[in-house]
Amino acid sequence: MSSPTPQDLEPLIHPLFDSTTSTFTYLVACPSTLHAVVIDSVLDFDPATSRISTTTADSLLSLIRSHNYKTVKILETHVHADHLTASRYLQTQLASNDAEEEEKKNGGIKPEICIGKRIVQVQERFAERYGIPREEWDGVFDRVFEDDEEFRVGDLKVKVKHLPGHTPDHVGYMVGSNIFCGDSLFDPEIGSARCDFPGGNAHALYNSVQTLFSLPAQYRIYTGHDYPSADSRSPQPYTTVADQKLLNKHLKEGTTKDQFVNWRQERDSGLAEPKLLHQALQVNVRAGRMPRDGMLKVPLRMPGGWKL
């Protein structure tokens, strides 16, 4: 019997759910070579104390090491506004400047931190907003992907899909019969992501969802978050294309673009900003690096007409 090709080989997938930010991180590995990627990692942050910790990321590292995986890439679907990425921390923990120690840690591989090519326009926008020096964001991602670019993880083939709408830089990663769609879609009972961040666009998100819906019915869509109501169910990392088309509360098959856009825009106009918005954006456009001065900026909202 011949060995499976990269086109039909299916990955090993480990979902990890962070209940504090309701975020799914995925560890995706090639079963034949044990090469792996991490998708949308989480760095713990307490806004009350401005303290960063690595408990969640360390659990991921323990899982990687327990399976003897060799992490070749740390992937981001987009610049997240609701959690800090652990990408830089993971890279430093998985790779060392000491060759002998590096061989022990990750098979001599320094994983690349990667994202879609439109990251630059997002970095420029938020660097200006928060006064981030160019040298702290320019070129901090090791690799930026072209639309529909393909790369290998061991014997697996991964294809990058541009899925804008939630943010303009948003991408998904297709591996075998699975696509990791970030914040493009959520569990059918949750629906879709907001589109009111700078560069977000409900029209574009509708089109991106149609791209997902064009996949074979049995393909699995792995989502970036889940928000089940209390005790209703456990967080679900994926649903099938068929389930999404049939059940998605915002975008099930037959929903017109005008219906979705009108509903999404009305809904977004009443949403509060994410709790970690300002901290997350400033760290994530730096690919998980911290500001050199150790300071993050949070804008003040002053009562109308009131001045100091």
What are the main properties of this structure?
Mito_Persulfide_Diox; sulfur dioxygenase activity; Metallo-beta-lactamase, Chain A; Metallo-beta-lactamase domain-containing protein; six-stranded mixed sheet; alpha/beta; RibonucZ/Hydroxyglut_hydro; POD-like_MBL-fold; 308 residues
Structural description of this entry:
This protein is of the alpha/beta class. Helix content is 26%, strand content 21%. It contains eight helices and 14 strands. The strands form three sheets. The chain has a six-stranded mixed β-sheet with strand order 1-2-3-6-7-8, with helices on one face. Strands 9-10-11-12-13-14 form a six-stranded mixed β-sheet. The chain has a two-stranded antiparallel ribbon with strand order 4-5. Helix 5 (202-213) packs across helix 7 (257-268). The radius of gyration is 19 Å and the shape is globular. It starts with 11 loop residues before the first strand and ends in a 24-residue tail after the last helix. The mean pLDDT is 93. InterPro entries: Metallo-B-lactamas, Mito_Persulfide_Diox, POD-like_MBL-fold, RibonucZ/Hydroxyglut_hydro.
